[in-house]
Write a structure and sequence with these properties.
The protein is mainly alpha-helical. Helix content is 65%, strand content 0%.
């Protein structure tokens, strides 16, 4: 039943819903790999450092990645993607810098340098890379969907 003169409500077109869902799942999985590996390795790195150990830093990274993964799993919002993307990029930077640069201890932070590529490091790097790359692709799809809504809006003008 329609009311005379009422503007029909249309659902917003989402042309890339399936792709967006796949990107979201991949990003959450990438963060989950980060969480798993950092929690698994944290006890091994508890001996490195005095006030703050590398193991403690691994646990902080795991907690941040877990929070971002949960937020992104629950909401496909720009804020959730921002958090996930920034955590992934920060994790990638940390891995790559500590791979090629011997960072000295800085205040309570331990010295960090690990020039090897273990299976765990490769897994985390790939997971963070997938998450970091999924973020701008998702935003591009969101912009494309917004453009489609504008182009498809053929209803009467709003007063």
């Amino acid at each position: 039943m329609t009311v005379e003169g009422a503007v029909p409500q249309r659902s917003q077109p989402v042309r890339h819903r399936g792709v967006a869902h796949v990107l979201r799942v991949l990003a959450v999985l990438g963060l989950a790999v980060d969480v798993y590996v950092h929690l698994k390795l944290a006890p091994v790195f508890d001996q490195l450092g005095t006030q703050i150990t590398q193991g403690a830093l691994f646990r902080v990274e795991a907690a941040l990645a877990a929070a971002a993964a949960l937020y992104l799993a629950l909401r496909d919002s720009r804020r959730a993607w921002l958090l996930a993307g920034l955590i992934a990029i920060a994790g990638l930077v940390a891995i790559l810098v500590t791979r090629w640069v011997a960072l000295p201890a800085l205040g309570p932070l331990p010295a960090m340098y690990d020039p090897t590529w273990s299976t765990d490091k490769v897994l985390v790097t790939v997971g963070m890379l997938v998450t970091a790359l999924a973020w701008p692709v998702r935003e591009a799809l969101r912009s494309d969907d917004a453009g489609a809504r504008t182009a498809d809006d053929t209803g009467p003008p709003h007063p």
